User: Fold this.
Amino acid sequence: MNIAIPTGTFDIIPEDKKDIWRSSYLWRYVEDRIREHAQSYGFEEIRTPIFERAELFIRGVGDTSDIVSKEMYLFEDKGGRKMALRPEGTAPVIRSFIEKRLYTDSKEQRLYYLAPMFRYERPQAGRYRQHHQFGVEVFGSKAPEVDAEIIEMCFSLYKKLGMSHLTVAINSLGDTQAREAFREAFQEYLRPHYDALSKESQNRFEKNPLRIFDSKDAKDQEIIQNAPTILDFLSPECRARFERVQEILTYLEVPFEVRSHLVRGLDYYTNTVFEIISGELGAQNSVGGGGRFDGLVKELGGPQTSSIGFGTGIERILQTLIKQKAPLPERPRPDLYLIPLGEKATLYVSKMTQEVRQSGFFALCNTGQKKLKSSMQQADASRARYSLVLGDREVEEGKCKIKDMDKKESHMIELNEVSLFLKMRYTHPTKE
Assistant:
């Protein structure tokens, strides 16, 4: 029986020569840099279940969103409860924030996650039915300075990883009153064009007209080109807030442009929203983005809490880095490949391998091959920096030759000085 991987998913293997971004050593590299970056901004990790009650996403994300209406993986458990695989990270974090009463802590809460998300959608470049997301959420601050900090944090992460040619797009969705007034004006503008809208945009017209700005239909985009913008409906307070965010971003030297039709794909955003865009991903060109969601904690049963965050897909980060030929690490190489010849040598090498590893080095031991030639071929294939052939005679004499596999040079050393030799010749990346 041939069982294939599900559509829209992929394996992450030690090294994928066809799609290099699917190599696990590159995922570890990016994830390590992300964790370091998050911690430098004061964020701590949170982990939530892969599945939650479906109601959490229906209430949190919005029943008119594509995620809820078309993309969620839904199932009924044995107790008859309606469950969903996690399609996004913010709602589960808020559920935990409320359930664990993290809001009782007087300090600002800064949480991050690195986790898989699941959406049943048409697979395409940068978009999969299981994708992996890094996200951050800040609870307890309504300061526009935090809005700017979050945008700068996302932008500087990409720069730190080596991305270039990025566009930071920002907008303000204002408060509830501004959105309602804009909604009415936008619908009024669209009514004469209703019959020319795509079927999907017609469906959105009554339930969530702002989502029409997200349409990829060329005719829809042509129609909304001259539509009113939400910036014309901002209250003085919301306008001042948005201007302050722009002032700080300018001071921080984060290049940005205001895009008045930017609404993001989720219903819960208020005031500041942003996206960071790369031209390397085709139609799905957003690398990451987020915004403020000040009413969502209360909507899900918690106290009124000012909140802001962003999410970014690991797949899109890696694909962009590779397409831009950004500097990335090579697959890790063994520091030492040990080849024992003889029973006494095999026993001795097992202890030597243990000692070398405990010294912080990457060591492999070949105990399966009986012939030296095939063992050396294995050493070459492993890309080891050094190899060491040890026979019973070397064990008796207490000396051996260690070979530099790149330079093809050999050095005679004492058996008890193998780790010392490696430390003098080469510092392992984990020790730097």
The first helix runs from residue 24 to 40. The first strand starts at residue 44 and ends at 45. The two ends are 48 Å apart (CA to CA). The mean pLDDT is 91.
